[in-house]
Amino acid sequence: MSSTPSFAPLRNDTFLRACLRQATDHTPVWLMRQAGRYLPEYCATRAKAGSFMGLATNVDYATEVTLQPLERYPLDAAILFSDILTVPDAMGLGLSFAQGEGPRFATAVRDEAAVAKLAVPDMDKLRYVFDAVTSIRKALDGRVPLIGFSGSPWTLACYMVEGAGSDDYRLVKTMLYSRPDLMHKILQVNADAVATYLNTQIDAGAQAVMIFDSWGGVLADGAFQQFSLAYTARVLAQLKHTGVDGQVVPRIVFTKGGGLWLEEMGQLDCDVLGLDWTVNLGKARALVGAHKALQGNIDPNVLFAPPAAIEAEVKKVLESFGAPHRDPATQGPTHIFNLGHGISQYTPPEHVAALVQAVHEHSRKMRK
Amino acid sequence: MSSTPSFAPLRNDTFLRACLRQATDHTPVWLMRQAGRYLPEYCATRAKAGSFMGLATNVDYATEVTLQPLERYPLDAAILFSDILTVPDAMGLGLSFAQGEGPRFATAVRDEAAVAKLAVPDMDKLRYVFDAVTSIRKALDGRVPLIGFSGSPWTLACYMVEGAGSDDYRLVKTMLYSRPDLMHKILQVNADAVATYLNTQIDAGAQAVMIFDSWGGVLADGAFQQFSLAYTARVLAQLKHTGVDGQVVPRIVFTKGGGLWLEEMGQLDCDVLGLDWTVNLGKARALVGAHKALQGNIDPNVLFAPPAAIEAEVKKVLESFGAPHRDPATQGPTHIFNLGHGISQYTPPEHVAALVQAVHEHSRKMRK
Questions:
Q1: Strand spans (E) along B220-287
Q2: Which one of A11, A17, A175, B264 has the lowest number of neighbouring Cβ atoms within 10 Å?
Q3: Closest Cα of chain B to A310: distance in Å?
Q4: Would you give the DSSP letter of residue B144?
Q5: Global ipTM
Q6: B46 is known as an active-site residue
C-alpha cells in the first residue's frame, strides 16, 4: 500500500464502541460468515466467479458479496469476504476448494524439510486481500465498520499439517506430541505471518481485526496454552493499535471450544473475546467482563426454528449477558451479539431478519 | 434372565474401589474402545463375523474381542463389546454400519408420527447383549470387573433424528428449537429404555455401568441442562444400586465436551464423572472431587508419539489430578486413568503397553 487511503466518516459506530467497552444504545450484531451460501444473491455472484477462490481473489466480487447481507439486514458491522487459509496459500501450499468439500492444500507440511521451507510470505501475494479491504471500505461509505481477519497460528497449522479438514487432528497432534520443536517452528512462522497480514489489512482500511482460532478447542489442557494461546499472544504483541484514520483498531479473539480457558484468555492483549454457545455469558462476564467485551454466542441452529422461537432464544442470550453498562463516560461490560459459529448454508434468509430485529429491539428495551 | 447367574470372586478390585473413592495402591486404567480395530486380533475376529453387528450380536465373538486387550495389557477393567445404538435398533429403527462409514438407521425419527411410535423396546430384542454380559463375566473369571454401558438419552436422540452421524446436528437441533415437545417425548422414552437396558445388564452380571453422553457437548448452555443432563438424571434415578452378587454397582457418566458444566454434573446421582482432555483434572477435582471419582483424560493422539513422550504425558495427567487420598478407612478424591475419547484405529498396539505401564508405575510412585 504505497499511499494511505482515505475514507468517508463512520455513521454507525455502535460495534466499535461496544468493542472498546463504551456504552451504546443497543447491542450491536453481526454474524460470522454473514456473506455466505444461505443468500441466493451470494450464490449468484459465486456462480459468476466460478469458484470460491475466484470469488475471494476478485476485488469486485469480494466487495459485492461483503455488502450483500447489509442490503438485507441492519447489521452493525461488515466483515471482509475472504478465507482463513489465504496465508498458508501465499506460503506456497496451494489452496483449493473442491466442489462440496472443504479446503485442501496441494502440499502438506509434515516433516523437517517441509517445515524448514516455511517463511512469512511476501505480502504482495496477498495483495488481492488488501485491495478488497480498501474497495469494501470505500463501498461501505461509512455505513458500518469493516472487520479484517485471519486464522490463528494454531488453526492454520492444523490445515497445513493435515492438508485438509480433519475429524481427529491425528497428523497435527502426532507432530505436536512427537516433534514439538517442528510444531513450534511452524507456529512461530505462522504468528509472524498473521501479524504482518493483519497489519497490512489495517493499513488498507480495516477498522477492527479478528483472529479465528477455530480449532483451539481440540487441544488438551496444557497443550492449548502452549501451542495456541501463546502464538495468538505473539500475533497480538505485533499488531498496530491505530488504523489509517487514526482510530483505535479493536482486536477480537475467538477460540471455538475455548470456554474452559476463559480466565487465561482474559489476560490476552485484545479487546473482545468471541464465545461459542456452550458458554454462559453471565458466567463469562463475571470472569472477564471487566477487562474484555464479549462477542457471541447463539447456536446457529436456532435459525432453523420459527421466528417466535428465534426471538425467545435471542432474549435468553441477551439476558444471560445481562444489562450492559450505560455510563458514556466510563468503560464497562459490553456485549456484541453474534452466532457461536458461522451461519449454516441452509438458513432461511428471512429468519436472519427476525434475529437481527430481535437483538436490536430487545437490547434497547433492556437499557430502559 | 430367568435365573441369577453366579460368578467367580473378583481378584482385582482396584477399578471398583477407585469408582467408590476408596484408596488403591495404584491408579486403575482402562481405555475407551479398548477392544477395537487397532488390535490385529480384533480385526481377525471381525473378519470372521462379517460385520460390526455380526460381531456384537454373536455372544462368542463379543466375548472373544472383549478379552483380547486384557491378554495384551494389564488393564484394570473390561468393558462389554457392543455399540451405543443397540437400544434405538431394538426400537425398530434398523441399525447398520456400512463399510468405512459410521452407524446409520434405516428409519429416522423426524416428525410427530414417528415420535408417537416410539416405546421402550422389549428387552428380549436385546438378549444378545445380556447374554454377552454373562458370557464375558464368566470368561473373565474374576480377573477384573466388567463395565456395562449405554448411550445417553440425548446422544441416542441425535442419531435417531439425524439418522446417522452429523457434523452440525442441524436436524436434531431444528427439532429441539422448533418442537421441544417432540424432543422431550423422545428423551423420556430413551431415558426409560436406557434405564431398563442398564438394569438388565446389571442383572446379567455387569459390575459397573457407564452412560456415554458423546454428544452432550454440542448443546448450548441451557439446552444441555434441559435436554441432556435432565434425562441422564432420569436414567440414574431408575438404576439398581447392587449387582447379582450383592456388590454396589458404580455409575459413570461421561459427557464429551461437558467440561463447562462440571459443577452441575457434580450434582448427578452417580459415582464417577468421565472427562475429556480439554479439562484440567486438578481444577475438576477442586470442583467435584469431594463427591465424585474422576475418569480420564489423556488425548488419544498422545499414543502416536514415541513411548518416552507417552510416559511424559501420562505423568502430566496423573500429576494434574494430584495425589489420590491414601486412607483406606475413608472416601476421598480418586482418579481412574483413561483416554478422553475412544482409542484411534491407527494406534500402534505397543504404544498402549507403554501407556498402561506408565500409569501403573508412576501412580505407585506418587503414593509413596
A1: 251-255, 272-274
A2: A11
A3: 8
A4: S
A5: 0.96
A6: yes
